[in-house]
Amino acid sequence: MLRVVLLMGALAVGSAQPGKNTTKPHIVFIVADDLGWNDVGWHNPDVKTPVLDQLAHKGVIFNQSYVNYVCTPSRTAFMTGYFPYHVGSQHLVFRPDTPSAIPSNFTFLPQKLKELGYSTHMVGKWHLGFCNWKYTPTYRGFDSYYGYYCGAEDYYTHFRSNNKEGGIDFHDNKDPVTDQNGTYSAYLFSGRAVDIVNKHDQNIPLFLYLPFQNVHAPLEVPKRFEDMYINVQDENRRKLLGMVSALDEAVGNVTMAMKKMGLWDNTLVIFTTDNGGMIIQSGNNYPLRGGKTTLWEGGTRGVAFAHGKMLQKTGYTNNEMIHAVDWFPTILAAAGGTADPGIDGVSQLDTIVSGKPSPRTEFVYNIDNIFPTIQGAIRVGDYKLIEGFAGLPDGWYPPPNMTGSRPDNKDPISGTWLFNLKDDPTEHHNLADTMPDKLKEMRAKLDGYRKTLVPAINPKADPKSDPKNWGGVWSPGWC
């Protein structure tokens, strides 16, 4: 799913010199789609991501930055600061033909930033509901929007199918974009982001949210990127890696524009994936267990970093606990504001700026009570508890070009698992039977969290959503 880059200015945190014309930092929040733990250069030297590698190595790499198991829940956390099970978006993802959306009573991050004087722009994937205009980006705090509403589509035609039917899902603010058939989305998105930077008034702080399409399925990429991996024999893996490198180039185009326009020295970059790599689509999370759609570490422990001159401690790997809900209050703190009391997120600004201990000691992976994904999982300190459906696929999967077999896993689809992640980060040793007191303690904690569960937003498909009713375009206006 997408990468997040956050650029913070100094005055808000009292470190680096302020930017050219504004004392507030420019913030670029980049989300990669379905980017796996083993699909970036700083974890895997076979992956060619020179731009991202440099940003990460000269910034702060986060080794315990957690996201949700699929797209919509993570994007809910980013935009609201709440765990998805407190919002209603905990069950799988929002389908394009259902009237699903984050309720309007939740204030989104760009709305808070506009109160602080920011210019707010979004380029890329939404996936938080669009059946009514009030649920779409420009009605939830963004000054402009260029991208797609649904969870996936063709990278070139920008067509989203739904069974045998479908339509174009590409929008410039409220207008459908129908003249870009054949242009790769990473080119379009980086091009629009560069245009926003070039036209930006430097007297106004900028918030740029860049949730890229790469590297979500389908596996599509210009041949020049695929050819960077001619030694990788598996075709799908070769394409996936090419998509990662295409994303890297796109990020580089945006950072170059910010340097050219004099914004870079007052920018903080936060980069993250939205969930782990999709194993059946050649994403890779090795040596972590599982991947996207699972509560295993491979699905929820995400690649992430921060970069910016305002960071006081750089060039290291930070092992503090961070969750996706924390980016909301962290970004607000960097902008000189504070989040509303009662949200689930906590500001990690001191952690990312100077390496101070994280204020977070526990979090909820997910709680869902809808069959067949009835599940609950939490982390408290070093311990992790999963009860119910942990998700599939399960196991430890080396990339296709790595020698060695894929170990068989004998665990059931549903069950109870207790792990000490400090000692066993790859989740090989279930302690549920050997640590009954700890299991009882963790179950009591999970039961406490369950009491605040909000019913999942899970409506049936509505035929009014069909793009044929809207000129062949996936469009708001039917709920």
UniProtKB/TrEMBL annotation:
Residues 25-336 form the Sulfatase N-terminal domain. CDD domains: 4-S. Gene3D superfamilies: 3.30.1120.10, Alkaline Phosphatase, subunit A. Residues 457-479 are annotated as: Disordered. InterPro entries: Alkaline_phosphatase_core_sf (IPR017850), ARSB (IPR047115), Sulfatase_CS (IPR024607), Sulfatase_N (IPR000917). The keyword Hydrolase applies. It comes from the Eukaryota. Belongs to the sulfatase family. This is Arylsulfatase B-like isoform X2. It comes from Branchiostoma belcheri (Amphioxus). The lineage of its organism: Eukaryota, Metazoa, Chordata, Cephalochordata, Leptocardii.
